[in-house]
Specification:
With 515 residues, the protein is α/β, with parallel strands linked by helices. The protein has 13 helices and 22 strands. The longest helix is centred in the middle third of the chain and has 15 residues. It starts with 38 loop residues before the first helix and ends with a strand.
């Protein structure tokens, strides 16, 4: 049985997964499609004074600020075109703040990955190119994959086996002509670089209940296998490593329940460290590394002091802000990445609709994460329908998010909460944590602006722009996470009590303050 990487270690069989709910494809235009608004709709948008009175001018929308009683007209702007990211210049490293990533030219890099876990073992080269190209064109910046199939008994799609015998991680099977398991991995990894994608590789997936490679991973094999991978891939500057895989490394009932009889059920902390050190010491270029632990768990207690552990790991439920914030607040400063979230096309509970799926990404990134990993159940398993799933609305929503961030210059975001200096940004608070009412906000560097994500409709939203900059005036926009449309609200806006009307009909929205 292969554990579902999105299933809280439930050990759910791959065959048992079918389509989830909430993907209304026909009703939503592609990202970047301009929206049109009739005059009645236009008049419903805008800023409303503290008295709660809206006045519409013939030009369109009306704004008022509590400290300035006069009203100024404003009109909705056109949807900005989709913003293409520049090609990534490798290697990608950690920014000077220690919170984010930058490429080799010093440009901010946002890690947006698809968890195509079994793609290298279950896809042909043609299919893998289809996957990688689709993700790059949508705006993703990485593929997150397992070097080995989740099942230790599985060959790859060409019938090649990775080792001379099942589980023999210290005995890779290679051929002189390269027509073997590792030659195909080489090709997939190179294809990622050709397309400007980070290849984030899991060496040996542990499995939710240990029903992956965990039982085969002795300390000796971990060192040997790590050295083999470093010798083969340690010169490639677009590779990151993600050790473990949906599993706690120490010996607990959940961590070992799926380990077959006769194999090791004890702690894998030292084996993981040995592998991480071998990968790091054998690399000739910097390669970032982390550990994919179980949901709602942290890897900090096991690997926080290890030099190879360069990215803090988060893995949450449907509301990732809590886990991301906890990792962000640690004394040791590192970028935080949410390595996995709930998937589209999921059969088990909870089944998230499209809005809830994208909300995971917005909450994670606005809570301080430097990266987010999206997934679809059909794609990670490479099951029937995976090609169609590449175009799922929820997958395109990540592309819309990528475009939104690119329009802000992909600037490194600083999370805002009620107890931070910028906390007064929202005078009415940030909602209830881990609920659809929760609000996540972040500021741009140097007081340039702010982004605020609301996961459900509001009436009016009060904003204190002085929390972003004490004197600056801002343009205010709404952005629709479902379509990419931006709605211009006002310019030259400043004050401690600005009220913005919710865009009618939107299920969730991003409020943008921009100098």
């Amino acid at each position: 049985m292969i554990s579902h990487p999105d299933g809280d270690g439930q050990g759910r069989s791959a065959q048992g997964e079918r389509a989830g709910v909430g993907h209304a494809r026909a009703s939503t235009p592609p990202p970047g499609t301009p929206r049109t608004f009739d005059r009645r709709t236009v008049l419903r948008y805008g800023l409303i004074g503290a008295s709660g009175v809206a006045v519409a001018a013939l030009a369109g929308l009306a704004i008022a600020r509590s400290q300035e009683p006069e009203l100024a007209p404003t009109t909705p702007g056109a949807t900005p075109p989709a913003t293409a990211r520049p090609g990534t210049s490798f290697p990608v490293g950690v920014s000077d703040t220690g919170r984010g990533f930058v490429d080799a030219q010093g440009r901010p890099f946002v890690y947006l990955a698809d968890t195509a876990w079994n793609a290298p073992s279950r896809m042909t080269r043609e299919d893998f190119e289809t996957l990688a190209t689709a993700r790059r064109e949508t705006g993703y910046t990485a593929l997150q994959m397992s070097v080995l199939d989740f099942s230790p008994q599985a060959d790859n799609v060409y019938g090649h086996t990775p080792f001379t015998a099942t589980g023999m991680l210290d005995s890779p099977q290679t051929s002189a002509d390269g027509d073997d398991y590792w030659g195909h991995i080489d090709w997939c990894v190179q294809k990622c670089r050709d397309l400007g994608l980070v290849a984030c590789l899991v060496p040996s997936w542990y499995g939710g209940w240990g029903d992956g490679w965990r039982g085969h991973l002795t300390t000796r094999r971990a060192g040997s296998y790590g050295s083999f991978l470093a010798d083969r891939y340690g010169h490639l500057d677009h590779i990151w490593w993600l050790l473990g895989g949906d599993n706690e490394p120490d010996a607990t009932e959940q961590s070992t329940a799926g380990v077959p009889g006769g194999l090791g059920r004890g702690s894998r902390v030292e084996a993981t460290n040995v592998m991480g050190r071998a990968l790091q010491e054998g690399a000739s270029v910097p390669q970032l590394m982390s550990y994919h632990t179980a949901r709602r768990k942290t890897a900090e207690e096991h690997f926080g002091g290890e030099p190879w552990y360069t990215i803090s790991a988060a893995y949450s439920g449907a509301y990732p802000a809590t886990q991301v914030s906890a990792e962000y607040a640690r004394e040791t400063v590192r970028p935080v990445v949410l390595w996995e979230a709930y998937y589209a096309g999921r059969e088990g509970e909870p089944q998230l609709d499209r809005r809830a799926l994208r909300a995971q990404a917005y909450h994670a990134l606005f809570a301080g994460a430097a990266g987010f990993s999206y997934g679809h159940s059909f794609v990670w398993r490479v099951s029937d329908g995976w090609k169609e799933a590449l175009a799922d609305d929820s997958a395109r929503d990540i592309g819309t998010l990528a475009s939104l961030l690119a329009r802000q210059g992909d600037a490194e975001l600083t999370p805002v909460s009620a107890d931070t200096p910028a906390g007064r940004l929202l005078p009415d608070g940030y909602g209830t944590p881990e609920s659809t009412d929760a609000v996540s906000a972040a500021t741009l560097p140097d007081g340039r602006g702010a982004l605020v994500y609301f996961g459900e409709p509001r009436g009016n939203v009060r904003v204190d722009t002085t929390a972003v900059h004490p004197t600056a005036a801002f343009e205010i926009h709404w952005a629709d996470p479902a379509s990419g449309a931006e709605l211009f609200v006002s310019s030259g806006t400043a004050g401690a009590d600005v009220t913005v009307a919710w865009p009618p009909g939107w299920t969730d929205a991003v409020l943008i303050l921009r100098r």
